[in-house]
Amino acid sequence: MDLEHLFRQLRGPFSFLRPEPAELRTLARDYSIALPEPQRVFLHREESTPILGFPVLQGDSEWALRAALERYIEAEEDLQWGRVSRRGTDPKVYQAAWEEYYSLLSRVTENVTASSFGRRYPSIFWLYHSIALSRLLKEIPRRLVRRDAELARLHGDEVKYQVLHRYLDKVFQLTYDGVQRVARQAEDREEDLFPQLLQLMRDNVLILSEDHIGPDLSQLSSYFRGYLHREPEEILGALAAVGEWLESRLGTDPGFAGAVRQVIGKELPERPQSLLRHCGLLRFFSTWPGFPDHAMSSEDVELWELLLLRLKEFELLLGLRRLVIPVRTDTVQGLVCRGALWGAGAKDVALSDSTRPLDFLRPWVVDPKVSRFGLIYDITDFSAILSVLSRSGTDEQDRSYRRIFRFQRRVNRLARGRRLRLEKYLGDGALYSGRHPARLLAVALGVQRYYKRTLEEGFPFDRGMRIALNYGTYRLLPIEGGDAGGDAMRYEFFGQGIVELTRLSTGKAMRDIDETRTLLIGLGYPAHEVDSFFAPVMSQNVDVIDKGEEDRQFYAYINRNGALVNEGIVASERFVQRLEELESPKALYRMREGSRRYLVCEMESAGEPLQFALRQLGRASFKGIGKLVIFEIVDPEPWDLSAGEELAPTPLVAALQAEALAESRST
C-alpha cells in the first residue's frame, strides 16, 4: 500500500507523524503490507461526496463480543490485582469469563481469516476491536485507585500491562489455532493468513493501551512506569533540558543552525523543540559538543528514538482506526450512521443500500451478495464472422481485428466516462455494473449509436448487436491478486444477475441451435455445410419470426413461442422500476411506429439531458429463470418528436403498462 496516499485519507490531529516521504518510507517497511484500504461510503441517494472508511455493523452479536471482552478484562484485572494485594480470587469466575470471550473471538478469527481473500479483514477487525480494548486498559489504574489508593499508586500501572501481556499471550495462541484450522481447510500457508497487524500491535502496545497521546506526552505516564519501568518526570525532564540547549545553540551558533537546516532539508521551525520529533535528529544532536549528556545519556537517546518511532506508528494506526464507521440497522431508514461524519450534526443519516458493512460474527463477514445495475452487450454472430475472416487474407484479418479493438476501446471510454465498472470481458462484448441506472442507460444508447456509425465505416461485424440492462443480485467472487503489497484484489460477478443478463442479451428461441452451430464452425466444419444441416430445423421456426419487427435495424420482441428475440436494447422490469424510483424520468410524448406504442422520456444524466423511448414487450420465458416482464428501449434520436402526442405527468411504469394494454388490443 502507498502510505503517502493513505496518509492523505487519514483524519488527525497528528503531533508526531509527518507526511514526509522519508518518514513514511521508514514506516512502510512494516506497515505497507499490513494495513487495509479504506472504501468509499455513500449517503442514501449517493449525491454527496463519499467518505472513506470501514463500515462496521453494530448489532447484538457485536455488543455480545464487546461485553465478553469487558468481563474477561475485569476478571484478568482481578487476578493480577489479587497477586499484588495478596488477596484470593475465584478461579471459576475467571475461567467462565475467558471461555465466553474465547468462544466469540474464535468465531471471529475463523470468519475474518477464511473470508478475507486478500481484503485484510483480520486487520480491520483488530483496528476496530482495539478501540474497546484500549479504553478498558486505559482505565485500569483509575479503577484500582478506588480499591486501594496507595497500593494502586505503586502497582496500578504494572497491573495494567500485566493484564495486557496476559491478554496478548492468550489471543495469540487462539489466533494461531484458528489460522491453523483455516490453513488446513483452504490449503494455504499459515504465515500468509496470520494477521500481520496484530503482530505489529504486540510489538507496539500503544495502540492497544491508549486512545490518545498529546504532544506533551502526559498520557504516557502509565506507559513509562508500567511498561518501560521509568519515571515519567525523568524522561520528560531530560527532553526539556535538551530542548533548552537546542534553542540556545541554534540562536548562537550559525554553523550548527546551518547543519540542522541541511539535515532536515528546510527552514528551521519557530519552536526548536519540535525538531526532537524528527527521527534520528536527537541522535545527531548528541554528537555535538556541549550536548547535555548529564541530562540525557546515550541510552536515553536511543530510548527516545525508539519511542518516537512507536509514537509515529501509533498515530498512523490511530488515524486509520478513526476511519472505522459504526453503522446500525434502522427499521425505517435501513443502514444509518452518525451524521457528524458528513457534517450533519448529531442526527443519524441513512447510507446507500450499496453499503456492505462488516459483521465479524457472520461467516462471510461481508455478505457476498450485492445488488447492482448491470449492462451487457454482445455482437451478434461474432464467432461465425471470425470463422469466415479466418479464411480471408492476412491483411483483411488484421484490419478486422484492429476495428474490433478500436470499437471495444471506444465502448470502454464511454463506460468510464459514466463511471461504470468493467466486471467481465466477454470477447464479443462486456459486462459493466454501476449504481445509477441513468448512467447505464446513457451508455447503452451511446454504444448503439457508435455501432451504427462503425457499420457505415465498413465494420465487418455487421450482423447486429444486443444490449441488455437489469437490476439484479450478484455474488462477488474474489480472484487472487498479486503478492502481499502487489496488485489489488480483483473480483468477478457471478450468480442470478449474470444469468438474467445473459438470457436477456442472447434472447433467441433458437439460441441452443445457434450455440451448437457456432461450436461446429469453431471446430473447423465449413459454415455452409453446418447451415445446410440445420436448415430443416430452422425452417420449422419461420412462422415465429415477426418480419414487421425485424424490418428495423435494431429490434426486440417476444415471439409466438413466448421467447425473447433481442437485436436491440432490452431492460428487465426491476431495472425500469428502479429507474423510476431513483431518477424520476418524465414521459414527454407518445409515439407510434406501426402497431408499436412508445413513451419518449427525458431525465438528467451526468448533468446532461438524456432522451429515450420505452415500450413494454410483455412476459417472456427464459431457461432457468422462468418468466420475466421485458421492456424495449429505443433511441428516439431519428424521430420527429413534434409528431408525437404530448403527455400529462403520470407514473412511468403505470403509463407503460397502459400503453402495452392498448397495443395488445389494437393487434
Walk me through the structure.
- There is one protein chain.
- By secondary structure, the protein is α+β, with helices and mostly antiparallel strands.
- The chain folds into two domains: 34-223 and 325-337 and 348-361, no CATH class; 369-666, 2-Layer Sandwich (Alpha-Beta Plaits).
- Helices cover 50% and strands 18% of the residues.
- It has 24 helices and 18 strands.
- The strands form three sheets. Strands 6, 7, 8, 9, 10, 13, 14, 15, 16, 17 and 18 form an eleven-stranded mixed β-sheet that branches. It has a five-stranded mixed β-sheet with strand order 1-2-3-4-5, with helices on one face.
- The longest helix is centred in the first third of the chain and has 38 residues, at 149-186.
- The protein is elongated and about 100 Å long.
Q: Which helices and strands occur, and which strands form pairs?
A:
Layout: H1 3-9, H2 21-31, E1 39-41, E2 51-57, H3 60-85, H4 91-114, H5 121-138, H6 140-145, H7 149-186, H8 190-193, H9 196-203, H10 206-209, H11 221-226, H12 232-252, H13 254-264, H14 281-285, H15 298-321, E3 324-330, E4 334-338, E5 348-350, E6 369-379, H16 382-389, H17 394-417, E7 421-425, E8 429-434, H18 437-456, E9 465-479, E10 490-494, H19 496-506, H20 511-522, H21 527-539, H22 547-550, E11 555-558, E12 564-567, E13 569-572, H23 573-583, E14 586-593, E15 596-605, E16 608-622, E17 626-634, E18 645-646, H24 652-666
Helix pairs in contact: 3-4, 3-5, 3-7, 4-7, 5-15, 17-18, 20-21
